[in-house]
Amino acid sequence: MKRVRVYKEIISDENLRLAIQEVNAGHRRNGNHSLNKKVIEIENNMDEYVEKLRAFIQGLVDGDEHMHPPLKRRRWDRNADSGKGKWRDINEPLLWPDQYVHHAVVQPMIPHIMRSMDRYCIASVPGRGNSYGVKALKKWMKNDVEGTKYCCECDIYHCFEELDPPYVIEALKRVFKDTETLWLCDAIMEYGVLIGAFFSAWFLHLTLQPLDLMIHQKQYGVSHYLRQMDNFTIFGSNKRKLLEDIKKWLAEIGMKIKGNWQIFRVGFTPKVERAHQALPKKKQRHRRPRLPSALGYRFGHGYTILRKHNLFRLKQSLHLYYYRRDRNRVISFKRASGLISRLGQLRKCNHQQVLDRHYQPKTMFALKKVVRKECRRLQALYPPYQAA
């Protein structure tokens, strides 16, 4: 792979202005809708802060400046672990100058990182979100029954916490050759590869690129492969040897596979089906095929259904909405917008039976009316800020 130099592009006026605009777009207002004074000050003095940002970046390269300790928060992620939920420790970098530095450094790198990225590595990649992965899995399951007979599902244990900056620097050296850029990347990782920082997802994708290439080697017989950040979904014929080699490769960079990995049969051939029918009932239950579960759905050959926890929460939300509506109680904006998102999941799967059993006519219209009313109230109360 041809290595490139990007440091001059990082400290250019165009890149620094773009970084400031990208960060400001999501931080103009605080959680209580009040204007963020620091963002307003930066927008009103753009030229001055561009020079300050350039000077800070050059100070990081020279060793005269250092990143600030991130603010640690703990949040409950109700959709993690197949819908069971878990606590996540999130690191929130300081707004000025840390978040502006992260965007300024990573923005010129993104085209070069994506140049060698696997086509089906998704999450935090523009144009490769949840829908992109769902379409790919549905296409594979429908059009390649033979190549999706077996599935391997696994993910990396404490991925960002276990990823050490020296291994990231080695991965960066494969793409970037100017020492200033490497020193700068080392400086922004002073407190580790932080969960919640802008650069973390891109550096992880770059570090795992050799693993993506290894999985596609012919000796493993992999027909299809999808990676959502640190979650792997692999289809093929010889999964035992592949999983052992994945463990060895991750051990070289100080990481390991979580203990709940799974290798299972997705479907039966006619010959195996006859042998399965001859087994006792208890063994038939234990050896029956299963559906791959990823991205909030379960994928079969020619059909797609919601995960059990997602379906349960959709039914629960619909029941609570109808209960409050029939008693003329107030429907909150949060409840309405959340239920709209849940109903939107049905568009990507087979959903007719769910609608027939649990959905009442004009529900979506009433929910959108609640959301529209609240959005108009907020727009009138807090009009868009116009920089001087």
Chain-wise SSE layout:
Elements: H1 7-10, H2 13-25, H3 37-44, H4 46-62, E1 71-77, E2 86-92, H5 95-106, H6 110-115, E3 121-122, H7 130-143, E4 150-155, H8 159-162, H9 165-173, H10 179-188, H11 198-207, H12 209-215, E5 222-228, E6 231-236, H13 239-252, E7 262-265, H14 270-277, H15 281-286, E8 293-294, E9 297-300, E10 303-306, H16 308-326, H17 333-344, H18 352-358, H19 363-381
Parallel strand pairs: 3-5
Antiparallel strand pairs: 1-2, 4-6, 4-7, 5-6, 8-9, 9-10
How would you explain this protein's 3D organization?
The protein has 388 residues and is an alpha+beta fold. Helices cover 51% and strands 13% of the residues. It has helices spanning 7-10, 13-25, 37-44, 46-62, 95-106, 110-115, 130-143, 159-162, 165-173, 179-188, 198-207, 209-215, 239-252, 270-277, 281-286, 308-326, 333-344, 352-358, 363-381, and strands at residues 71-77, 86-92, 121-122, 150-155, 222-228, 231-236, 262-265, 293-294, 297-300, 303-306. Strands 3-5-6-4-7 form a five-stranded mixed sheet, sandwiched between helices. A hairpin with a 2-residue loop joins strand 8 (293-294) and strand 9 (297-300). Helix 2 packs across helix 5 (95-106) and helix 9 packs across helix 11 (198-207). The longest helix is centred in the C-terminal third of the chain and has 19 residues, at 308-326. The protein starts with 6 loop residues before the first helix and ends in a 7-residue tail after the last helix. The mean pLDDT is 88.
